[in-house]
Design a protein that fits this description.
InterPro entries: Gfo/Idh/MocA-like_OxRdtase_N, Gfo/Idh/MocA_Oxidoreductase, GFO_IDH_MocA-like_dom, NAD(P)-bd_dom_sf. This is Gfo/Idh/MocA family protein. Pfam families: GFO_IDH_MocA (PF01408), GFO_IDH_MocA_C3 (PF22725). It is a single chain. This protein is α/β, with parallel strands linked by helices. The protein contains nine helices and 15 strands. Strands 14-13-12-11-7-10-9-8-15 form a nine-stranded mixed sheet, covered by helices on one side. A six-stranded parallel sheet has the order 3-2-1-4-5-6, sandwiched between helices. Helix 4 links the parallel strand 5 and strand 6. Helix 1 packs across helix 8. The longest helix has 20 residues.
Length: about 350
Amino acid sequence: MARLKMGMIGAGGIAVNRHIPIYQAMAENVEVYAVQDINIERAEAVAESHSIPHVYEDYSEMFEHVDAVTICTPNKFHEVISTEALNRGVHVFCEKPMAMNAFEAEKMLQASKENNRVLMIGYHYRFMESVLLSKQSMREVGAPIVTRVSAMRQRKVPGWGVFINKDLQGGGSLIDWGCHLLDSALWLLEGSKPVEVSAEVYQRLSKQPNQINDWGRYDHSSVNVDDHVSAYIRFDDQSTLLFECSWAANIKSDKNHISISGESGGINVFPYELYQSKYGRMMETTVETKDQEHEAAYLQAENFIGACLGRESLKSRPEDALVVSKVIDAVYRSSEEKRSISII
């Protein structure tokens, strides 16, 4: 049986805590062959602790020795690394978001098509049990009317890494966190094309000194990314999406929410509930699901490896991730220009 040789680009927390353990649990189909990081000492330590045989200081030198790479770098480097890897004939799994903006994302998609190589973006919420069940249930919902999405965290600005650095990340709570639920919602609404966005972007709480923050200390004076976003998205079928995300909100507790009101029924994703008018009354169907991020990430990796080996098609296509990037661009531009933005 063929085994995929996998190279890890970036040896930070997401690589060590998620991707490497998952790949090594799939040893019959994939070998974690090499790791690269700009901090060579970090790469060597990760290689030693995870029994990875090869270490590279320059990721370009890795491409001729591997079949695929997993990119776990700051967003600024997603496009340049992905495009080079794809042009060198290497499959790419890239952590979300796809890139800093839609222009870069389009270059990645083009390289994938031109070289006939797999490109997958790490929107693992699609693989949550509730989301998968909701996808199967959309025929019961019918044509969508209004969708509501909330990705809200109570005082959880990431106090590590480069999450508050716009030059390296491109944005804050939206591009890092809200994008997950936005992607899942757009996937559920497949067939409805977003055409216009009106939004407001905030940078208030995280800029205040002496903030209570559950996810570590950070320099409030260095924050130059969004900590709260609200948006109104119109679709080509006249349906709409109400969106809000934050990683520093003054709210009672964290909230992950997607719900869709349609012509035939309604659905709530977390927890899964289906609402329908039947037998002269409103009926509610509930199913207990296990929405575990590690399990979703495992299914995502399984799908990526299967696609690279030619055994299955991607359940999270780069074309879909490009649409997410276009919506994100429109959100930021709408707030900056104080007007609605059309999405082409």
